[in-house]
Structures are given as structure tokens and as C-alpha cells.
Specification:
The chain is of the alpha+beta class. The protein has 5 helices and 8 strands, in the order βαββαβαβββαβα. It has helices spanning about 25-30, 55-70, 80-90, 150-155, 170-185; strands spanning about 5-10, 35-40, 45-50, 75-80, 105-110, 130-135, 135-140, 165-170. The mean pLDDT is about 95.
Amino acid sequence: MTVKAYAALLRGINVGGNKKVPMGELRPLLSGLGFGDVRTHLQSGNAVFTSEDTDEDALAARVAEAIQGHFGFEVSVLVRDGAYLKAVADACPFPAASLEGKQLHVTYFSEQIDASRLDSIDQAAFLPEEFRLGDRALYLYAPDGLGRSKLGEVLFRPALFKGTIATSRNWNTVARLVELTGELDRG
């Protein structure tokens, strides 16, 4: 069987003192699930690992179940393989290399988003901020950062993507997850 590198993207942990998941506890928890080469990145819910399992949804469910069992609360989890993460980064419609990491964000979704969900947003009203849809992802260019982004406020209203798991990462984290999964794929 082929071993693949994956990233687990945990949504909404370690924010404002809620849903505390120390990375020092997450690593052995993931290793205990039989995953190899487990590493974490930052405290915001990013882990990489290897597995022979190729079902990303099943892997995400296993991680979510283990977190609930160990920490006692639910966390939404997306698992994506390294090839997908690299493809999303490579397809970025904005000049990532010339931007600061805080200016560019990717929101990963559990499913492909129908563009019609975004029809009500008048993008011209938010310029120079912009967004584009990709493969189960949304790219957001926010030159003043996400914390000051008026477009981000509109895009991240819960009703807009209801029924879908969505979790965002700044470009520095996007690039680092591509790098980490690439290292694991090369062995």
C-alpha cells in the first residue's frame, strides 16, 4: 500500500481560550490512531501525518472522534492530502509571492462551493479586497489583513456556507503545510 501525506485542519480551536487543544497532546493522539510522522504547526489546529488510508473524510472523522473522546468537545476537521494542498497553492489567482502572508488567505471547504452562494456579494464595493473560488477553496486578498477586512466579514457569515465545514489559513500557513506534506511525501 502507498503511504500518503495529509494535513488535518482543525476548525476553531485555541481561539479566545475556547476549545483548548494543546499541540503536545494532539501529536500523541494522532500517533495513537496509527498515523505516522505526526507533526503540528502553530497552535491554531494544523497537523500533518502519513497514512495508508486514502479516504480523507474517514480520516477526518477519526481525528474528530479522537479529539472529542480525549478533550470532551466537538471540533470540525478537514483532512486534505499534500497533492491537493499544493494544487490549491499553485492555483492561487493572486500574486502570493509579492504579498505578505497576512494579506492572503485560503478558506478550505468540505465540499465544492456553488458560485451562486456568492452572487449577492458586490465585489466592486469592497475593492481593493477581492475573492476567488477554487477547488473546494476560496482565496481572499485582504491588503489590510483579515482583522480589518470588510469583505471577510461578509464572506464569513455563518449562513453563507451553512452545511459546509469551512476553515481559513493565512498564506504563510498555506505555504508551510504544502512544505511539510511535501517533506513527508519525499520520505
